[in-house]
Amino acid sequence: MINKKMILVNRPTGIPEKNTWSFEEELISEIKDGQILIKQQYISLDPAMRGWMNNSKSYIPPVEIGTVMRAGTVGEVIQVNNNTNFKVGDFVSGWGGVQEYSISDGKNYSIIKDKNNPIHRYLGALGMPGMTAYFGIINEGKIKSGDIVLVSAAAGAVGSLVGQIAKIKGCKVIGIAGGNEKCKYVKEQLGFDEVIDYKNDNIYSSLKKYCPEGIDVYFDNVGGEILDAALAKLRMNARIVICGAISQYNNTSRTKGPSNYLSLLVNRATMKGMVVFDYKNDYPMAINQISEWFNQGKLKSNESIFEGIDNFYETFLKLFNGNKRGKLILKL
Amino acid sequence: MINKKMILVNRPTGIPEKNTWSFEEELISEIKDGQILIKQQYISLDPAMRGWMNNSKSYIPPVEIGTVMRAGTVGEVIQVNNNTNFKVGDFVSGWGGVQEYSISDGKNYSIIKDKNNPIHRYLGALGMPGMTAYFGIINEGKIKSGDIVLVSAAAGAVGSLVGQIAKIKGCKVIGIAGGNEKCKYVKEQLGFDEVIDYKNDNIYSSLKKYCPEGIDVYFDNVGGEILDAALAKLRMNARIVICGAISQYNNTSRTKGPSNYLSLLVNRATMKGMVVFDYKNDYPMAINQISEWFNQGKLKSNESIFEGIDNFYETFLKLFNGNKRGKLILKL
């Protein structure tokens, strides 16, 4: 059997170029004692991957040059060599990376027992983006019924769930997304109360219109000017959850800091960073809850699925050019 | 009797110019039923006053054009007209503004009963700067013994107390101040563990030297590049208390936002704004505690006292040109 894989060969500055990775093929060797062989079915593409490519201190070590590009995956166990935790035919989720097959001792994989959800949802609403949305808005944002919640990247994998969960919890939710089509989706399909098109609307005046009383919670996926606009509209004791800053990930100059940060002082507000891994002991509880919301028809998810490891590079770029909706996935 | 007073007549852009205020004299009229007349002895000069002059939404309304410049004061009651809460000879602290006499119904004044402390200390360690330092580092910074605490404007009215309180509570304290003389004072007189001279030292490499393990709490009075340097050295679950941003108050361009704010995410850290007025119900408790520390010789305070209301303008500028130490006070 041949494994096709994407190896990180150059650390990018700015938007990754094609020569950031090298596409390689290798013969799959016999798996060793205790190992399992997984045929990967779906690869998760996440904005965070851009950060993992920088050689700087962060919440996990950078991907090393010469190794398979790190990515979350789901797949099927097709060989087991003396490992009692897995059997052939198990579906698993884990960190398989951007390749067609992965070999592991199984430590970073969990078996998906659930038959009610499509397997690729374990990369989206039941995977890292779902966990990020759930713990981010509930535990970090500390939402309560009646709060006014603003969410950026509202049509994205995390933002779309953040807003829907806040609605379930009784909040008024305003989304920010780019372009008419996404905005329509956010309001009509996902049920946000209001949506602001950052490509065509003035964010400051739209916020004035949709939440004249200000914002209790801002869930930030983007940073930049949108973070500044949110800061300018904080209510007393507001919370800003810093989940990401996609507008800044490909910067070649210094990150744009939030000029309006002194609004934190005026409004006794809090800005706090979160990393979803801190909640890993509570993932099963959140997966059950999100799964239940799906069964009850209270949650919708959306995946943009593209096919073929050969198309990894072009698909990856869709994370940053806005050319996708919901969770971005590569199908093998 | 003639009252001399400073009236705000122009809203400044950048550093206030002399024509920001107009110096006026008026004959003091008879005080009305229920009023008291206070002969002011000391006027507090605080960086926050610069913010109160801007016509923008903040934690208190701006000083109105044509009114006496707002300032904290201490003085002596010299006339009482049918007000049982005060008697002639009482020493009071309150918001008398930049003038020699003030007339009030007494609502914003408290009587100073304490005879152990010099009266002007009620504008410093036992006044707003002391309350800010106490609640800022204890309630907002949530310090615990062993924490590594960084304080900017360490020779200033608030910073000097923040660092000393953190030392009392068992923290390792690093101060940042400008110039050799101030730094010597901070380390030798105030007992900080280390001090960084931002005018002569490289802040990043000094932080690396003095706290290689990083910072648990940063108490920020200054904003700008120093806030960025602190963000770059945060430890896991660190807290940044935003008390002020003196480096930005006279900006004529946009406030410099903290470029390194994504360190909040990497380190699951919190940046929170504080306004001391929120703690006003607990001021008496904090005043007792600070007073006790003075009696025990555990705290030192320092005041830069200048004389004469005619010198208000030149004295006020010392807040921003660094040409003072500790609490800046105008004596009448």
What is the fold's blueprint, element by element?
Two copies of one chain form a homodimer.
Chain A: E1 2-8, E2 21-27, E3 36-45, H1 48-52, E4 73-80, E5 91-94, E6 101-104, E7 109-111, H2 128-140, E8 148-151, H3 157-168, E9 172-177, H4 180-189, E10 194-197, H5 203-210, E11 215-220, H6 224-231, E12 234-242, H7 263-266, E13 270-273, H8 283-295, E14 303-307, H9 312-321, E15 327-331
Parallel strand pairs in A: 8-9, 8-11, 9-10, 11-12, 12-13, 14-15
Antiparallel strand pairs in A: 1-2, 3-4, 3-6, 3-15, 4-5, 5-7
Describe, in plain words, how this protein is organized in 3D.
The structure is a homodimer of 332-residue chains. Chain A has 332 residues and is an alpha/beta fold. Chain A folds into two domains: 2-124 and 301-331, Quinone Oxidoreductase, Chain A, domain 1, CATH 3.90.180; 128-277, Rossmann fold (3-Layer(aba) Sandwich), CATH 3.40.50. Chain A has helices spanning 48-52, 128-140, 157-168, 180-189, 203-210, 224-231, 263-266, 283-295, 312-321; strands at residues 2-8, 21-27, 36-45, 73-80, 91-94, 101-104, 109-111, 148-151, 172-177, 194-197, 215-220, 234-242, 270-273, 303-307, 327-331. In chain A, the strands form three sheets. In chain A, strands 3, 4, 5, 6, 7, 14 and 15 form a seven-stranded mixed beta sheet that branches. The first copy, chain A, has a six-stranded parallel beta sheet with strand order 10-9-8-11-12-13, with helices on both faces. In chain A, helix 6 (224-231) links the parallel strand 11 (215-220) and strand 12 (234-242). In chain A, helix 2 packs across helix 3 and helix 2 (128-140) packs across helix 8 (283-295). The model of chain A has no long low-confidence stretch (mean pLDDT 95). Chain A binds chain B through residues 57-59, 223, 228, 242-245, 248, 254-275, 278, and chain B through 57-59, 223, 228, 242-245, 248, 254-275, 278.
